[in-house]
Design goal:
By secondary structure, the protein is of the alpha/beta class. It folds into 3 domains: about 1-125, Response regulator (Rossmann fold, 3-Layer(aba) Sandwich), CATH 3.40.50.2300; about 125-140 and about 220-360, Hypothetical protein af1432 (Orthogonal Bundle), CATH 1.10.3210; about 140-215, no CATH class. Helices cover about 55% and strands about 10% of the residues. It has helices spanning about 15-20, 35-40, 60-70, 90, 105-120, 125-130, 140-150, 160-165, 170-180, 180-185, 195-200, 200-215, 225-245, 250-255, 280-290, 295-300, 315-330, 335-340, 345-350, 355-360, and strands spanning about 1-5, 30, 50-55, 55, 60, 75-80, 95-100. The strands form 2 sheets. The chain has a 5-stranded parallel β-sheet. Strand 1 (about 1-5), helix 1 and strand 2 form a beta-alpha-beta unit. About 40% of the residues are buried. InterPro entries: CheY-like_superfamily (IPR011006), HDOD (IPR013976), RNase_Y/CdgJ (IPR052340), Sig_transdc_resp-reg_put (IPR014626). This is HD-like signal output (HDOD) protein. It comes from Vulcaniibacterium tengchongense.
């Protein structure tokens, strides 16, 4: 396997390659200081993995990875983030995985293998045949994707966001309703959509729009209690967000919101052992078709069995697993939590679970 690492300290190369050898891997790592070198590799070069930081030399890392995606669509793309890096959204469209800087061999190995496993799972014949039997799939969440692009513009104002939301009066009504709920209002009524945007915050607003567009497509989800499903989704999202720190919290919140979206598709299994593909994998396949970021797709696909990820730590799929299980009252995989050193946190997490909306009212 050939790895190209762009714009990182070449002084790490010796230790990094020794770590790969210690894992028994014959991966070849090429360190390039200039992003132009990566873009000018021979046309017939076989590259398996690209790694870049948020700033790869003179070029922003997300821009570089997006250009490399067009040249090498099969390569796994990894974006390195500083611990305090707030520019997470810039990297989600271009990267399969987000890792912390400095680059560590064991974390890169886990990332590459998990993406490969996910691709193999979602490319399975049973899943593709089941999805293929559906006449048409739920359409991509148009307003959510439009807002996501808008929020990546650092100059986007709350007025512009409110104007975009106003395209859909039903969404406006839901935003105002949520903003005036006990969870957000603090006893202060809001009737202006621009003020609601400010109060909710951009990420909570995005998830509300996503939930509204996803769970209310009238032609899908026959026999599913949509109100109960959306209530679980919102509570899972809020809990998953609290289980991770930093930028990963927002990934976990969105993946938690969408953990059950596969239940809206006909012919999927509600649990392990049932006929048909599992709803988690079917949902992840749908999100992949919509173009949602890989960490969210991965979190949804593995949330029901996070131990399948050869992970060195507790990340999105683990957080969503815990949150979804606690909200639904199903067993938590305690063996998995022991393996990632988080079992002692479980009692605290249980105390964080919100009651269903009907009980809280």
């Amino acid at each position: 396997m050939r790895i190209v690492i762009v714009g990182e300290d070449v002084g790490q190369a010796g230790a990094f390659e020794q770590a790969l050898a210690d894992f028994g891997l014959d991966w070849q790592a090429q360190w390039l200081a200039d992003p132009a070198q990566a873009l000018n590799l021979p046309a017939d070069a076989v590259i398996d993995v690209f790694v870049a930081g948020m700033q790869a030399g003179p070029l922003p890392g997300p821009v570089l990875l997006a250009q490399l995606a067009a040249l090498y669509p099969q390569a796994v793309r990894v974006l390195l983030l500083e611990d305090r890096d707030a520019a997470l959204l810039q990297g989600l469209d271009c990267a399969h995985r987000l890792l912390s800087r400095p680059l560590r061999a064991e974390e890169l190995i886990e990332a590459v293998e998990s993406v490969a496993d996910l691709r193999q799972m979602l490319d399975g014949d049973e899943l593709k045949q089941a999805i293929g039997r559906i006449g048409s799939l739920p359409p991509p969440p148009r307003l959510y994707l439009e807002l996501t692009r808008l929020l990546r513009d650092p100059d986007a104002s709350n007025a512009a966001i409110a104007q975009t939301l106003s395209q859909d009066p039903a969404i406006v009504a839901k935003v105002l309703r949520l903003c005036n709920s006990a969870y957000f209002s603090g006893g202060r009524e809001t009737t202006d959509i621009r003020a609601a945007v400010t109060r909710l915050g951009h990420q909570a607003l995005l998830r509300l729009v996503l939930a509204s567009e996803t769970f209310h497509a009238p032609q899908f989800g026959g026999g599913v209690d949509r109100a109960a499903m959306q209530d679980r989704a919102l509570r899972t999202s809020r809990l998953a967000r609290r289980l991770l720190a930093g930028p990963s919290a927002e990934l976990a919140a969105t993946a938690g919101l969408l953990a059950e979206v596969g239940r809206l598709l006909p012919g999927v299994a509600a649990q392990e052992g049932d006929a048909g593909p599992h709803y988690a994998e079917a949902g992840a396949y749908l999100l992949g078709l919509w173009g949602l970021p890989m960490p969210i797709v991965e979190g949804v696909a593995y949330h029901h069995r996070p131990a399948r990820l050869r992970s060195t730590g507790f990340w999105v799929a683990g957080a969503v697993h815990v949150a979804a299980a606690l909200v639904a009252g199903t067993p938590v995989d305690e063996a998995y939590l022991r393996s990632v050193g988080m079992i002692d946190r479980l009692p605290q997490w249980r105390d964080m679970v919100e009651p269903p909306a009907q009980e809280a009212a």
